[in-house]
Amino acid sequence: MKTFQTLFLVVLIIPFAEIYLLLQVGGIIGAFPTILLVVFTAVLGAWLLRQQGFATFQRFQESLAQGEIPAYEMVEGPIILVGGALLLTPGFITDIIGFACLIPQLRRKIAQYVIEHYLVQAGAHFQQAKAAENNVLEGEFSKEE
């Protein structure tokens, strides 16, 4: 299945699953505690987003100061933003995914996967294209009559 189709299905299915889960939890613990739980996870998510964002930015600056390429930090930044956005979205499924994005050990594993499977492959394609450019023969052409 193509990436766009998969993303479309996820965007279509997640809200229904969230509503179903919210109704089930609300039926078990009540409506008001469910609302408080959703608000609590949003507040906790905003606090974690701020804390983890600053920590990652500090590591980013330290890497640059040492003359290193901050590859993990550059990938972790968007993961933190996605995690924060998911935590601010009401629902328990998005909260679980959002918390996973904000836990440093899990975020590091996600970043490592992204770097190895997407960025390294993109770099290999770039090197192949660069090598193809280097296979050009230089010369001059003149037409004699």
From TrEMBL:
User: What Pfam families does the record tag this protein with?
Assistant: FxsA (PF04186)
Q: Where is the signal peptide?
A: none
Q: Where exactly are the transmembrane stretches of this chain?
A: 6-23, 30-49, 79-103
Q: What are the protein's UniProt keywords?
A: Membrane, Transmembrane, Transmembrane helix
- Which is a Gene Ontology cellular component entry for this protein? membrane
UniProt-recorded name of the protein:
FxsA cytoplasmic membrane protein
Q: Which organism is it from?
A: Methylobacter tundripaludum (strain ATCC BAA-1195 / DSM 17260 / SV96)
